[in-house]
Specification:
Helix content is about 40%, strand content about 15%. The chain is α/β, with parallel strands linked by helices. A hairpin with a 4-residue loop joins strand 10 and strand 11.
């Protein structure tokens, strides 16, 4: 699908949309695509059509639900919503109501809620959702998945004790239930699509999640397995963290010291702690420069890694050499990954230099990010293949 999210066939769902930030971000991406096609005033109408039909948000709390509607309304100023029109954001429990069943009971005096429940149920049961994204809640103490969820996470428990010997597990964690919703809708429902969550990472390595990992990997196959390994800091990754490193990776984030100076791993200028005990990031020491001759392999992938690179300083003398711009600027959940880690380990906070293991952790994290970025074309191609051939 050349138009990506702007394609009318792409149904998008944020099942826990909160204030609507992800819904609005999707609509903004669609807007930019449409405007880039020179649609003029037609772009606003097409954007409204997407916002009122196929870019969907579910929210269970009334206040963020209202804010989400307001935010979508703000996005549609060029073609305002008219009487009888509404954003496709629904007040509903995203974890229930997906199965084929009779309509829920009447709620006398709250007919509008009954109508809302019905509209959300139509999306859950009938719409060909192709993209599930968002930031599901994390709560390991949310209790067992209730009857209304229809045994949502039971498939992730099959064989845990008998085959894997796992006797204690916590698979009723809320974010796991949202993963199961996405997997069931994409892998078992439409048979193709994309799941993109910001989530807790315990499912990547804890024994309790081994069946969940197996099931997700069966759905996304080898490319997904490779990405999962890159995202697990404890998993060795040949060519990236172990063995003969790929040439474009080996030159990334090399611990170095300026000639004529002693090595110094005391991290300075990256963060401080307020009187209230809150850690605040500071500017740090990251100097942009052109790639040098030893970094030619990384420069050859500049389209993915960035046109320039950074020397990221621990202090005035020691630094990580050659952190490509896209790696250094990589953000997850709005936070700059490497800078966030550094801000919590400034010498003024921890009172000691970094250990060799901590210096290595920064290097390995930068290299894993670089490898993820380099997977981009393959991931894009896999998505296009799924769209072209659902089988």
């Amino acid at each position: 699908m050349a138009d990506g999210l702007a394609d009318p066939a792409v149904w998008v769902l944020d099942p826990c949309c909160g204030n609507g930030s992800y819904v609005v971000a999707v609509l903004d991406r669609i807007r930019r695509t449409l405007e880039g096609r020179g649609m003029g005033d037609l772009a606003a109408e097409e954007l409204k059509r997407a916002a009122t039909t196929r870019v969907v948000g579910f929210e269970i709390m009334t206040v963020p639900f209202v804010v989400a509607h307001w935010q979508v309304g703000e996005m549609l100023k060029a073609a305002p919503l008219q009487a009888g029109e509404r954003a496709a954001v629904y007040l509903t429990n995203a974890l229930t109501g997906w199965g084929e069943s009779a309509a829920g009971p009447a709620i006398p005096g709250y007919e509008a809620l009954v109508e809302e429940r019905g509209a959300a149920a139509t999306v859950k049961r009938e719409r060909p959702i192709l993209v599930v994204l968002g930031n599901p809640p994390y709560n390991a103490y949310a209790g067992l998945s209730p009857v209304g969820e229809g045994g949502l996470v039971e498939p992730y428990k099959v064989g845990l004790q008998a085959i894997w010997g796992v006797k204690k597990f916590n698979l009723d964690e809320l974010y796991v239930r949202f993963f199961r919703i996405a997997e069931r809708r994409i892998a078992e429902g439409v048979g193709r699509g994309v799941v993109s969550y910001i989530s807790n990472w315990s499912w990547l390595f804890l024994p309790s999640f081994v069946v969940m990992r197996e099931q997700l990997l069966r759905a996304s196959a080898a490319l997904g397995a490779q990405l999962a390994a890159l995202l697990d800091p404890e998993a060795p990754m040949p060519g990236v963290t172990t063995g003969q490193l790929r040439s474009e990776i080996a030159c990334v984030a090399v611990p170095s010291t300026k000639p004529g100076h002693d090595r110094d791993w005391a991290l300075r200028g990256w963060g401080n702690r307020t009187a209230a005990g809150v850690t605040m990031p500071t500017r740090g020491r990251a100097a942009s420069r052109a790639y040098d001759a030893t970094e030619a392999a990384a420069q050859g992938r500049a389209g993915l890694l960035g046109a320039n690179t950074f020397d990221v300083g621990l202090n005035d003398h020691s630094f990580w050499s050659g952190v490509p711009a896209s790696v250094w600027e990589c953000r997850i959940g709005g936070y700059q990954v490497l800078k966030k880690w550094l801000s919590y380990r400034d010498h003024s906070i921890i009172g000691r230099p970094l250990t060799a293991g901590e210096v290595s952790h920064v290097q390995q994290t930068a290299r894993r990010i670089a490898a993820c970025l380099l997977l981009g074309p393959a991931l894009d191609a896999s998505y296009r293949n799924c769209v072209a051939d659902p089988a």
